[in-house]
Amino acid sequence: MSELNKIALKILSNGKGILAADESNGTMTKRLDSVAVPSTSENRLLFRETLFSSEGMKKCIGGVILYDETIKQISKSKKTVPELIYEAGAVPGIKVDTGVKVLAGSPEEKITEGLDGLRERLEEYYKLGARFTKWRGVYNISNKYPSKLSIHSNAHALARYSALVQECGMVPIVEPEVLMDGNHSAEDCFNKTSEVIRKCFEELTLHKIDLSGIILKPNMILAGANSDKKISNEETAKLTLKCLKENVPPNVPGIAFLSGGQTEVGATENLNLINKYNDTNFIMTYSYGRALQQSALKFWSKDITNVEGTQKVFNHRASMCTLAAQGKWSVELEGQ
Q: Residue 336: its pLDDT value, please?
């Protein structure tokens, strides 16, 4: 077992999942604005530290994706944020892309940037305590998108990023997100997601990536947000599994789904069904941002000094997700 594989399994095993707390300052400001809390660096840290020091963190979270500001902050207890995460038994990770820009040659699509200077940034993040990383490629769906250009360009960037990350002794999360925006059918989502994932693994293999030392972070197979052709949760689970079985090499240790605009309970229910039907060797867990934090954020915004109450809300959500990662969740448990 390679060192990278050990890190990946530590993050994903025993029903644990990943807390995606890597919102950029701009995104975090939108989240805090939506609950009328001033977006200062102190408040951003206070909310995250409240989650990182919770019981749910110790029991349910195997890894936390951080943002550049957060990984360098010092907590109230005078520990660095990575130290706080290690103490909870989780692995600190870091978002390393610099965001999406318009794709030259296809202006309605996006390409993720951040390869320039990445090797040096990774060395700094490693010294700060990070042991895994995240890079997100995004793909639109319509009758003509994603284009071959978008599929190839983003897969190539994900592979180059992964090579640099593994060279530095860290586990890359490979996140090709086919967006929910649009009125496409689940069948369209299945076909396009399959094409996107297939191309990613072609490029990862070409770049000599150790596939046993990566984590795949894909979208689930869903109809578009504006589609009138919605499918059941069972169909979502079965199509998602079919897509992954057909396109992900068996030596990948685990798959941590993004919530991608689903509700907290919706993302939990779909993950639970995926695990109920999972007949593969892949660990299937979660890497949720909003679907882990939204209720806790709303509660916290009423009184940002109420640490215990906020943690109670987060603990419940995290435990629901971890039950779903083991196929043991039921809707009745939501009310408890």
A: 65
Q: Is the pLDDT of residue 192 over 80?
A: yes
| Residue 17 pLDDT > 70 | yes
Taking the C-alpha atoms of 141, 143, 146 and 152 in order, what is their torsion angle to the nearest 10 degrees? Answer: 160
The pLDDT, as a whole number, for residue 1 is 78
Mean pLDDT of the region 251-264: 94
User: Considering its fold, how many domains does the chain have in total?
Assistant: 1
Q: How far apart (Å, rounded) are the C-alpha atoms in residues 5 and 76?
A: 33
Contact between 15 and 271 under an 8 Å Cβ cutoff? The reply is no
Task: Express each pLDDT in 74-88 by its tens digit.
Answer: 998 899 999 999 999
Both tokens of 83, joined, read 């130290």
The CATH number that applies at residue 108 is 3.20.20.70
Q: Could you give the residue numbers annotated as active site?
A: 175, 217
| Calpha distance 95→21 (Å, rounded) | 9
Query: How many angstroms separate the CA atoms of 148 and 290, rounded?
Result: 30
Q: Mapping DSSP to helix (H, G, I), strand (E, B) and coil, where does residue 253 land?
A: coil
Q: Torsion angle, CA of 114/18/12/308, rounded to 10 degrees?
A: 150
Domain that holds residue 106: 3-335
Give the Cα separation of 198 and 334 in Å (integer).
36
